[in-house]
Structure to design on (338 residues):
């Protein structure tokens, strides 16, 4: 289910809950209960479907516990509990989807560096082809203002190449014959011929993108723990509720146990924390690849930076100056005249 659809479901469920509470305040209990049950169904339909699909493959997850708990809550008349549980569970799923979208933004930025076309020189004839079609040892022509489409060695010409997105160097590097260049870097000035040594998925940029994709698939340790925890927690609660009902002969008590044992807060806690961390970082210009890295930040004692441009703009500027035997205004005037 897409994030957009989840958002609509959350909005519809919230509106129904608000209407229910409004009718409850007006003491129109029939409408209040009806809207609350409908809210539970709207937010819980996807959860119920997932639980049934899981049972087909003999998977007992938190979705099944939520389904049983919501059904039990409706049976014993706790309609608000049913709606709240499904709403919170869906909210957690929605926030997790938002987290994935935010982490994908770094990958999209990397993809934007990858040029789509390349100018290849064969038998003295220039031809423009898709960058993916360039073969190893082909000679690629890169003009000023163009991105370099392959990893390779300069065989003719020289240029100032901006390698910031690969090496972190904020100032363009002068490149000449026999120097190596990387795919995705920018030729800011100069005209060069490059013999391709790495093309397609073998280029440095493609390897970086691949590593980012793999990193985004990894989950935070807390999320992994919750998944393992659910495997044992869900069947344990179900068995406990059955035993309680059998011993006490009180079905309502057994259903109440299922309702209060539904881990709504547990499910929502991790996605909320991760979204808050990634969102706050993005607002401050920091891209975080996923929840796993947010958790690791809490264990960091020392951070070492090896590139000037990482912490600065890479463009030196005078911040302050001291004068000796001359006035500040006079010194500035002389500097301007020079």
């Amino acid at each position: 289910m897409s994030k957009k659809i989840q958002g609509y479901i959350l909005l519809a469920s919230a509106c129904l809950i608000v209407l229910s509470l409004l009718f409850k305040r007006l003491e129109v209990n029939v409408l209040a209960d009806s809207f609350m049950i409908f809210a539970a169904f709207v937010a819980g339909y996807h959860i119920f479907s997932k639980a049934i699909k899981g049972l087909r493959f003999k998977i007992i997850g938190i979705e099944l516990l939520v389904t049983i708990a919501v059904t039990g809550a409706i049976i014993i008349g706790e309609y608000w509990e049913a709606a709240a549980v499904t709403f919170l569970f869906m909210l957690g799923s929605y926030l997790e989807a938002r987290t994935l979208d935010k982490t994908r933004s770094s990958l999209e930025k990397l993809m934007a560096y990858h040029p789509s076309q390349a100018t290849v020189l064969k038998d003295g004839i220039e031809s423009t082809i898709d960058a993916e079609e360039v073969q190893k040892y082909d000679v690629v022509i890169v003009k000023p203002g163009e991105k370099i489409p392959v990893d390779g060695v300069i065989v003719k010409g020289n240029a100032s190449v901006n390698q910031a997105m690969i090496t972190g160097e904020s100032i363009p590097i002068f490149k000449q014959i026999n120097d190596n260049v990387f795919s995705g870097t920018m030729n800011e000035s100069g005209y060069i011929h490059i013999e391709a040594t790495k093309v397609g998925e073998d280029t440095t940029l493609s390897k970086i993108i691949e590593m980012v994709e793999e990193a985004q698939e990894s989950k935070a340790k807390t999320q992994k723990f919750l998944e393992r925890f659910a495997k044992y927690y869900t069947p344990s609660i179900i068995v406990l509720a059955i035993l309680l009902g059998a011993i006490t002969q009180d079905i309502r008590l057994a259903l109440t146990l299922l309702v209060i044992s539904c881990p709504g807060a547990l499910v929502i806690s991790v996605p909320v924390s991760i979204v808050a961390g990634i969102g706050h970082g993005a607002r401050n210009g920091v891209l975080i690849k996923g929840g796993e890295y947010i958790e690791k930040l809490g264990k960091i004692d020392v951070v070492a930076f090896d590139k000037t441009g990482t912490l600065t703009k890479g463009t030196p500027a005078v911040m302050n100056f001291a004068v000796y035997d001359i006035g500040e205004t006079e010194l500035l005037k002389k500097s301007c005249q020079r």
Notes: The mean pLDDT is 80.
